[in-house]
Give the backbone structure.
Amino acid sequence: MLLAGILGAAGMLALAIKIGIRKVINYDIFFDIVITSILMYSLAGTYAGMMAALVGGLMVTIVLYGLKLTIDREKLVFTKSFKPPFIHAKWTRVPA
């Protein structure tokens, strides 16, 4: 049960790293909810599966919170202009 939760969390965190961990940790609450929901859906069916999903969700929460406190993160900022395209999106770095 514990190993399944840790492996599930490691797999989801590997996907978050591929997306861009500096972009993910700025929106950590959203990603916590999504990752925990995916783990609960995929491991549902038994009590041990649900406990593994909760352990995996807890591990993801701890890792993302620790990363948010220690490394710089990137935030999506929108700026308006009068020339097309009228809205520009840019990732800007936010200090830890």
User: Anything to note?
Assistant: The chain has one domain: 2-94. The chain is about 65% helix and 15% strand. Strands lie at 73-80, 87-94.
